[in-house]
Amino acid sequence: MKHSSIKSPDNIEFTFQPFVANRTLKSHYNQIKTIYSVLIIALSLSVGYARDITHLQPVEIQESNPRSIISFLPIYMAVNAIRIDYDISLTPQHWIQIAPALYLRNNRMNGSTFGSDFLHLKGAGLHLYHRFYPGGKNFDRSNVYISYGPIYQHLYFTYMERNDNVESERYTRLERLGGDIIIGVTAPIFDRLFLDFYAGMGLRYAFVQSNAARPKRFNYGMGAYGYSGNTLIIGLRLSVPFK
Asked: What is the distance between the alpha carbons of residues 27 and 40, in angstroms, rounded to a whole number?
């Protein structure tokens, strides 16, 4: 089966299956590009504003609050990934959240792939958020926050596909873009351990490159690796602050 390709306005070439309309692809690409531009501009303005007001904070407040937070997200283990967040304080109200994720699974081990849709998965992702605490950040009590920002994921799968009673190994490469808006609350559970529960909404769009006859194998629903569309976000973080 032949593949068709289009070029984005930035001359980046993406390869897609021929049954996907070019007009639809361009429309989705432009939509994602616009959302990314808005989120990055908002993120830049927020960081600039936070830096400008840092010197207005009383010294005792600046010194009493943590300068950074490291967090672990257990829910990512359910999708064969590990995500560790690193939050950097600009002011008690404004934080930057850098969230890399590593995806890795090898189902070839012991010669068994039972119960899995693929043989091998590897990839990485990055979430970059601006986090805002409307009431300031006080680590002695619960705190509500709002965060937003862009996300990117690169995933590569190999798997077996059956056509005409013949099984062949195929690959699918996903480049997924999107953006999130999240509301959450942090609360202390031990002396130096905090629980962060969050929920929100996001937008995802996956660019697919594959040599398979059915390249939409990983777009079967909202929780799928290659899902495109609006999505719900829910999770928790285990966080340790550092001064």
From this structure: 20
Contact 216, 228 (CB under 8 A): no
- Residue 18: predicted pLDDT: 34
Task: For residue 219, list its beta bridge partners.
Answer: none
Distance, CA of 47 to CA of 130 (rounded, Å): 8
What three-state secondary structure class fits 180?
strand
**Helix segments in the chain, DSSP class H:** 22-54, 59-64
What pLDDT does 50 receive? 45
Angle at the Cα of 14 from the Cα atoms of 212 and 209, rounded to 5 degrees: 20
Is the pTM above the cut of 0.85? no
Judging by DSSP bridges, how do beta strands 143-163 and 166-190 pair with one another? antiparallel
The token pair at 31 is 């939509």
**Cβ-contact 80, 124 below 8 angstroms:** no
Question: Contacts by 29-35 with C-beta closer than 8 Å and gap 24+?
Answer: 29/205, 31/205, 32/177, 32/178, 32/203, 32/205, 33/9, 35/150, 35/178, 35/179, 35/203
Q: Which residue has the tokens 């594959």?
A: 210
The residues, any chain, with a CB within 8 Å of residue 8's CB and separated by 6 or more, are 14, 29
Task: Domains for the chain: give ranges and CATH numbers.
Answer: 4-242 (2.40.160.20)
- CA–CA separation, 202 and 138 (whole Å): 28
**% of residues, the chain, pLDDT over 70:** 67
Question: Which residue do the tokens 């490159």 mark?
Answer: 209
Residue 15 has what pLDDT? 38
What's the CA angle centered on 142, arms 140 and 148, to 5 degrees?
120
